[in-house]
Specification:
heterodimer; A: 76 residues; mainly alpha; 4 helices; elongated; B: 384 residues
């Protein structure tokens, strides 16, 4: 398996249908699709981070770290 | 060019991945159903990555008055996060908060809602609110979002929105609808005059592919109704459909539509000069072969004039052997035999002899018995 697909598997859970779809692709297409999905996941992370930071401005500074961990966990 | 359902799926996948549909061209050969499963699986996986956060935010929102939660959602969370959290709320709470939010924010939020996950919430949203949001989404040409919401909102809201939409928007949105049952209900709701307007718009605005996509999804009754309304149109409209089918390789979709018409309408359409053009007949035969549409095509050929039938058979004979072979196999099926007899029996002697020659070549094959029956019924034996 290619690097991008392995990386994607580590980032998001793939159900049977998604796995089967990837299995039906040739190596090049598999990597290309994994790359596009990986980029979308990264964009989602950035958006959630940004939205989380905006929301946390409502929380007193001293509590922002714990509240952020409580709400958004640690996905890095 | 990929089939219509594949085109729609690739565009929806591109939306999910925040990329251009062209970047997904390498998936155009995949079946639409597989692409849909991929999209749904990826959407679910992306959601699951943060689902506990979304659920927690939804629970916390219940601790504050709706007005304050709405203000936090609007001023701090933003549309993206609000959209993700929506599906995790109780419908009652979500409606109470939505009532306190500006419509343009609700419209922006709707872009990030997963309709399937948020179905109970969307079904509970007031009709007036859905209508106002829909007007904004149409103005922004967010047809993919609207198409995906069709199966999730209440029927009352759906019909109200349809009354507000023009025919062009209706065609664009219909292209992305996933709930075929809902499409049937929409067509039942639309009277013949409105549908004639939709057909006129498909012709004027080059939206036949969108119209044909609708035809593929609806049940037989509405398929037939749509097909007959199209057949009622004047020849210029039908020619534009033939032109689009030829230009965009949409014969499989058109054949399904024609096959669902009343017999008299079918006869009129298949004998249009634009249909009996040799290039069109060639494409039609190729579509029948590639999509296994002989059960639709053979009866249509039987309705053509003798000249057109002969041109169709010539078109088939000019194609690779497997095409003609597939036609003969289909023609020998008991259901299609009478129509096949009708097609072959009206051929000029030379062509009949060519057909007989092809049948004779298969005399040693295991299925020769069925073909012999076809040959005998055509009385082709005499020409050998």
């Amino acid at each position: 398996m290619g690097d991008r697909l392995d990386q994607l598997r580590a980032e998001i859970p793939m159900n049977v249908d998604v796995q089967r779809f990837f299995d039906g692709l040739d190596e090049g297409d598999r990597e290309q699709l994994a790359g596009l999905i990986g980029e979308a996941v990264a964009r989602q992370e950035a958006r959630i981070d940004e939205a989380g930071e905006d929301a946390l401005r409502l929380v007193p500074r001293a509590f922002r770290g714990p509240v952020k961990r409580l709400l958004f966990g640690d996905h890095d | 060019m990929p089939r219509l359902a594949v085109r729609a799926e690739l565009q929806k996948l591109a939306r999910l991945l925040d990329t251009d549909a062209a970047a997904l061209d390498f998936l155009a050969g995949k079946p639409a159903a597989d692409l849909r499963q991929l999209r749904e699986g990826v959407a679910e996986a992306m959601f699951k990555r943060h689902s506990s956060s979304f659920r927690l935010l939804a629970s916390l929102s219940g601790l504050l008055p709706a007005g304050i939660t709405a203000r936090i959602a609007h001023m701090a969370l933003g549309a993206f996060l609000a959209g993700r959290v929506t599906g995790e709320m109780t419908p009652k709470r979500a409606v109470a908060i939505a009532r306190k939010l500006p419509t343009d924010f609700l419209a922006e939020t709707s872009l990030y809602i997963e309709p399937e996950r948020a179905k109970p919430v969307l079904a509970a949203m007031p009709v007036d609110m859905i209508e106002k949001v829909a007007v904004i989404l149409v103005g922004q040409r967010e047809f993919i979002t609207m198409g995906r919401f069709v199966g999730a909102v209440s029927e009352a809201a759906l019909f109200r929105v349809i009354d507000r939409l023009d025919d062009e928007a209706l065609l664009h949105i219909g292209f992305y609808v996933e709930d075929a049952g809902r499409l049937d209900r929409i067509l039942e709701y639309l009277d013949d005059d409105r549908l004639r307007g939709v057909i006129a718009t498909a012709t004027d605005q080059d939206l036949w592919p969108e119209a044909l996509a609708l035809v593929q999804l609806v049940g037989d009754e509405q398929k037939g109704r749509l097909g007959d309304l199209v057949a009622d149109e004047d020849e210029a409209v039908l020619d534009s459909l033939v032109h689009v089918a030829q230009e965009q390789s949409l014969w499989p979709e058109v054949l399904v539509a024609v096959g669902s018409m009343q017999p008299a309408n079918r006869q009129r359409v298949v004998n249009l000069p634009s249909v009996t053009d040799p290039a069109v007949l060639n494409a039609l035969i190729e579509a029948a072969y590639r999509q296994a549409l002989w059960p639709v095509v053979v009866p249509l050929l039987a309705m053509m004039s003798n000249d057109a039938r002969a041109a169709a058979v010539e078109a088939a004979l000019a194609q690779p052997d497997e095409v003609w072979r597939a036609w003969l196999d289909a023609a020998a099926e008991p259901d299609l035999l009478p129509d096949a007899v009708s097609v072959f029996s009206g051929l000029p002697t030379k062509l009949r002899a060519d057909v007989a020659g092809h049948v004779a070549q298969r005399a040693d094959e295991p299925d020769a018995g069925r073909l012999a029956e076809l040959a005998a019924s055509l009385d082709l034996g005499r020409t050998r």
